[in-house]
């Protein structure tokens, strides 16, 4: 069912309760975050065996570890004995095993139960069967994506395809070599807004002229409310006199080695539903990962990624970080300003999308299909 058309210019958004109702959020946790591929951690954050990180995926806490043989593994962060949370820290490093802080059941980095008080006296306990419960994991763009579904959907169709659909060509994203880049800066934002407001905001540039003075200076076509997500293959071009994707238009770093001439001096934004945004510019990549924690709270981790030699040289990346950091703050403030109004009687029936925003209707259709509904 297409989103309802109010007039030729206007189509309806979702009603306000979609952004405030705990039952809707619970359904999204189950049907989306716990069913689709979810971008969990940056692979290089777990840079050696024993490194781990815990993340919230829907209603589950997941621990991602690097094994002694160098692979990444993901597990439900729940001890098989009596259910204590196994890793209580957000990140850390163990020598060779994960030990439950309750009764000391101990698991190797592959999840197998390897020790427990008196385990020797319980020879019938199957150490694999009582190992940690594995979660599917794929690596792409230098990130570990996990999927809690018993039968994960096709990674190619549901994740990688977003880049093909947006850039019009499967190879285009590969030119940025994102998995080989190094972390120049990470900023974590705790946003008091529903995750869908953040997605919708990212998908439209109708607001750019109002709230993003620095960005529209660099990308003048954004000042016209141009819909960055809408035109397949199109990247917004840097303005004349703009030397780099930086807060003052000053030069950035050299073009990443495989970025092509037609990708040069352009910005591409990709939304990988449900929780990832990828921003491509010639000399760096900015990747947002959202962690929706409640109907009105979303933590966003934003990574600025550069050529390894740029980071290794200690070059000052602050001018390019500052540009998108400002954009983030401007966007998230707008989302936080919107969130309380979602509960207002003024918004019971929702708001409207103008033509430059109509493509957000595609996101709403996708969402409703995921929730098993055909109509808001
Ligand atoms: S709950 Fe983990 S060892 Fe008992
Ligand atoms: Fe914005």
Give a written overview of the molecule:
- This protein is of the alpha+beta class.
- It folds into two domains: 1-34 and 156-376, Naphthalene 1,2-dioxygenase Alpha Subunit, Chain A, domain 1, CATH 3.90.380.10; 37-152, 3-layer Sandwich (Rieske Iron-sulfur Protein), CATH 2.102.10.10.
- 22% of the residues lie in helices and 26% in strands.
- It contains eight helices and 18 strands.
- The protein has helices spanning 22-33, 155-167, 195-203, 208-211, 213-218, 308-312, 318-338, 360-370; strands at residues 11-12, 38-42, 51-57, 60-66, 72-76, 91-93, 97-99, 106-108, 113-115, 134-140, 143-147, 182-191, 236-237, 266-272, 276-281, 284-294, 297-306, 352-353.
- Strands 2-11-10-5-4-3-6 form a seven-stranded antiparallel sheet, with no helix packed on it.
- α3 (195-203) packs across α7 (318-338).
- The N and C termini lie close together (10 Å).
- The protein binds FE2/S2 (inorganic) cluster (FES) and fe (ii) ion.
- GO terms for molecular function: 2 iron, 2 sulfur cluster binding; iron ion binding; monooxygenase activity; oxidoreductase activity, acting on paired donors, with incorporation or reduction of molecular oxygen.
- Its cofactor is Fe cation.
- Keywords: 2Fe-2S, Iron, Iron-sulfur, Metal-binding, Oxidoreductase.
- Residues 37-146 form the Rieske domain.
């Amino acid at each position: 069912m297409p989103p309802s058309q109010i007039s030729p210019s206007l189509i309806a958004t979702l009603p306000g309760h979609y952004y405030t109702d705990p039952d809707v959020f619970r359904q999204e946790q189950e049907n989306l975050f716990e069913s689709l591929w979810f971008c969990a951690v940056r692979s290089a954050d777990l840079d050696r065996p024993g490194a781990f990180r815990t993340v919230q995926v829907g209603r589950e806490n997941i621990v991602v570890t690097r094994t002694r043989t160098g692979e990444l593994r993901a597990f439900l962060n729940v001890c098989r004995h009596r259910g204590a949370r196994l890793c209580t820290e957000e990140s850390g490093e163990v020598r060779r095993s994960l030990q439950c802080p309750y009764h000391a059941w101990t698991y190797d980095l592959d999840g197998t139960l390897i020790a427990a008080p008196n385990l020797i006296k319980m020879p019938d306990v199957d150490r694999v069967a009582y190992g940690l419960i594995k979660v599917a994991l794929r690596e792409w763009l230098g990130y570990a994506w996990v999927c809690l579904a018993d039968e994960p959907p096709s990674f190619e169709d549901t994740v990688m395809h977003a880049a093909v659909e947006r850039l019009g060509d499967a190879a285009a994203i590969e030119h940025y070599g994102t998995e080989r880049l190094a972390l120049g800066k990470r900023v974590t934002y705790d946003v008091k807004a529903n995750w869908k407001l953040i997605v919708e905001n990212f998908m439209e540039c109708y607001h750019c002229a109002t709230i993003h003075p620095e960005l529209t200076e660099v990308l003048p076509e954004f000042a016209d409310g141009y819909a960055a997500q809408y035109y397949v293959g199109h990247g917004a071009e840097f303005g004349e006199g703009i030397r780099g994707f930086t807060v003052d238009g000053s030069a950035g770093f050299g073009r990443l080695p495989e970025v092509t001439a037609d990708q040069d001096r352009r910005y591409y934004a990709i939304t990988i539903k449900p929780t990832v945004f990828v921003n491509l510019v010639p000399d760096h990549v900015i990747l947002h990962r959202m962690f929706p924690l409640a109907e009105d709270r979303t933590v966003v981790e934003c990574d600025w990624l550069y050529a390894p030699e740029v980071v290794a040289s200690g070059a000052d990346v602050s001018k390019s970080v500052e540009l998108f950091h400002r954009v983030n703050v401007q966007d998230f403030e707008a989302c936080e300003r919107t969130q309380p109004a979602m509960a207002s009687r003024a918004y019971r029936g929702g708001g409207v999308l103008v033509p430059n925003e109509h493509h957000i209707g595609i996101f709403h259709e996708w969402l409703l299909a995921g929730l098993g509904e055909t109509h808001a």
